[in-house]
Amino acid sequence: MSDRSKTLNPEIPPLSGSDKSSDLQDVYVEAGRGGVVKKQVTPEVIRGNQHLEELFRRVNSLLGDHDDQAAPFLPRVPDTLEEMGLREDDAQKLVLKFLLQKGSALGREISNQVKIPFSILFPMLKDWKNEQLVSYRAAGEMGDYVFAIVEHGRERARKFNEECSYFGSAPVGLPEYLKAMEMQTIAGKEATEEDLQQAFSDLLITETMFDRLGPAINSGRGMFLFGEPGNGKTSIAERITRCFGDSVWIPRTLGIDGDIIRLFDPGVHEELRNEQVGGLFDLSGVDPRWVRIRRPTIVAGGELTMNELEVTQNPVTKICEAPLQLKSNCGTLVIDDFGRQTMPVDVLLNRWIVPLEKRFDYLNLPSGKKIQVPFDQLIIFSTNLEPSDLVDGAFLRRIPYKIEVPDPSREHFRKLFQIMAPKVGLLYDIADIDYLIDTHYVAKKRPFRNCQPRDLLQQVRNFCIYKKSPKVVTREALDFAVENYFSMM
């Protein structure tokens, strides 16, 4: 039995019945040896005992279940600064710059700011007090102190600020990031019919479209979605990510040869909060430099520029921003309105022709160093233009799936009205919907679009509110909506 197992065993409360006690202990011993616990099932003997069940879950959380397919990678909290890939100077820079702005703060508050575990940071804070960089302002809870920066510390912090003004989460090194991306990659992920039906449960998608999307998603390489405006290309692209799983872990920042690169972006990433984090102690067992997010779906439209595809550095703060393809790793990157970007199409394609083939990219850092990073996302080019009119054969070969999103059929169009009317708060008669189709579409030889039922019903609703009439779809209201909607189309 390992030393770790021996340490854990005394913590297991005595249970009645030797067999039951042995069963529970075997679970702890197996986890203590670093073995794989196949199923995290609460033993029958402790079921109903709230204290013991919580203890069981906590041990499994801290030791980990490496067979959990929903979370194959979990960044464990480090025990030393060396395990974090940091030097004491790196920690000192962040802390002193933070205190330069804050003035004073509790040790645990500083720890939470720079995301260095308190057990690692606190001894360094005491050393820096001896070096007269900080001082004790007051005593805090649980043996903590309020630390205040002193003049010698301010001088050093100002020099650090001139190099880079960043004082957030301690960065994660490139090797750790590469390992995390490898363990969470979308390569090899398999999407079945059931996966697609669940991911697209809020959209009306035909079986034919499912059969086209499924193999393209499983390729993990990318696709063109093309068709007329308003048929739902962007909506389809945004839901494809759901087929790869719920969440991934990414570093808040990357540290590469002194350059700080912000990777976590609240503008495009949705953080999934950990209920175990908070209060005086963090009992999650997770390295706080990492953040769990929903698998990213990043959409870049006509405003996309070449700068967003490269590492950019703020000339004042010296903080770098990660490019879009790095932020979308392990997820989906949608190039919406492809062909309408301000940059020429061939410039964008030349930038990505090698990454699409090799599944890795090269980025230039402000220091002049070039690094290799994963290009691990599903690239979706969404356009209402014909792909062959935009790109040459060499690029089309690298995007093997070209999927047209067609106009809906009459039955599909009617079904969309039936789905959307209750969502906008309207009652309807199917005969009035047939009137709309026959009068304003068939007679006018006007094509159906998937977005039109929603758009027309919203106009009907606004018409009813204006007239103070019941929120019911009428022919009068439909005529009014069509006249407004198609006045310039």
Can you tell me about this structure?
By secondary structure, the chain is α/β, with parallel strands linked by helices. The protein has 19 helices and 17 strands. The strands form 5 sheets. Strands 4-7-8-12-11 form a 5-stranded mixed beta sheet. Strands 10-13-16-5-17 form a 5-stranded parallel beta sheet. A 3-stranded antiparallel beta sheet has the order 1-3-2. A hairpin with a 5-residue loop joins β2 (134-139) and β3. The protein is elongated and about 85 Å long. Mean pLDDT is 83; it is low at 1-48 and 63-71.
Give the tags.
17 strands, five-stranded parallel beta sheet, disordered N terminus, alpha/beta, about 500 residues, elongated, about 15% strand
- Give the overall shape: elongated
Helix content: 40-55%
Q: How much strand?
A: 5-15%
- Low-pLDDT segments, ≥5 res: 1-48, 63-71
- Summarize the main sheet: 5 strands, mixed
Gap from first CA to last CA: 77 Å
Mean pLDDT: 83
Structural category is alpha/beta
